[in-house]
Amino acid sequence: MTRRSKCITALTMAALCGPAVATDAPPGDAGAQWQIAVGPYLWLPTVSGTFRFTLPGGGADASSGPYNYLQNLRFALMLQGEARKGEWSVFADTIYLNFGRHESAVNATSGVLGTRGTQQDVQTSFAGTLVQLGGSRTVIWQEWGHVDAIAGMRYLGVKGTLDAMIGATVGSGPGASANFHVGQMQNIFNGFAGVRGRATFTRNGAWYVPFYLDVGTGTSKFTWQALTGVAYATKRVDFGLLYRYLAFYGSGDQLVQTLRFSGPSVNVTFKF
């Protein structure tokens, strides 16, 4: 198997952007000047899904993951940011995840893998990039916190690979044995809408609960994302321990049939 076939980038998260980055000044007089927030973060998701590969003479659905983050991850890059002026803001998030190959189960429908119900001697991998861009407007601002209405677009570029050893039990004749490799790509563009914000639970507002929820559709049939946790704010830096979930659901012959990311993240946000 080639080095290129050992990757799949998730990125994803497209919707992961923005929820953890939020400036804390209310709309009104404070909106006279721009407030900027930039946050590198570390997300440790469990990644799993189902991919539909087109094969010579047929196709196969491969169940991929859950990937072991520390064992299978080859590279990760995560960064998000926001610019706010008064009740309006724009935000962006980008994630790159590169996972190595992973033992998988493939349900062969027809074609080169034969007609056996499940082919176990296979490995899958994927690599992807997630980019999300959005805007928001504050619709509720109280002493306990605030709520923003959000809308935007997220992009997920995915490459999935499948490698299999085709033996006599699956091949076309006695003693048949061969290595088989296929790699496919899909670009997913989805619009989304939802809410985000924070709820403080201390008098000085230093400790708070950030929250985020969006749903969307587009190239994929359905996608949604949620986030919450606990965070601590200082004048120039916020620290957060959060939990995020992001899912994509495809249809038809799309490569991505299901793709799910879920797990904790550690966030550091610098405010200017």
Task: Provide tags for this entry.
disordered N terminus, elongated, mainly beta, 272 residues
What would you say this structure looks like, in words?
Residues 1-22 form the signal peptide. The protein is built from one helix and 14 strands. It has one domain (3-50, 63-102, 124-160, 185-271): Beta Barrel (Porin), CATH 2.40.160. The chain has one helix spanning 69-72; strands at residues 8-9, 35-43, 46-55, 58-64, 73-85, 88-99, 102-108, 119-142, 145-166, 178-200, 207-218, 222-233, 237-249, 256-271.
Quick take:
Helices cover 1% and strands 67% of the residues. By secondary structure, it is mainly beta.
Poorly predicted tracts of residues: 1-20, 168-176
This entry's quaternary arrangement is single chain
Proportion of strand residues: over 45%
> How far from one another are the termini?
47 Å
How many strand units?
14
Which CATH architecture is right? Answer: Beta Barrel
Order of H and E elements: EEEEHEEEEEEEEEE
Q: What is the tally of helical segments?
A: 1
Gyration radius from CA atoms, angstroms: 21 Å
Secondary structure topology:
Blueprint: E1 8-9, E2 35-43, E3 46-55, E4 58-64, H1 69-72, E5 73-85, E6 88-99, E7 102-108, E8 119-142, E9 145-166, E10 178-200, E11 207-218, E12 222-233, E13 237-249, E14 256-271
Organism: Caballeronia terrestris
Signal peptide: 1-22
Keywords: Signal
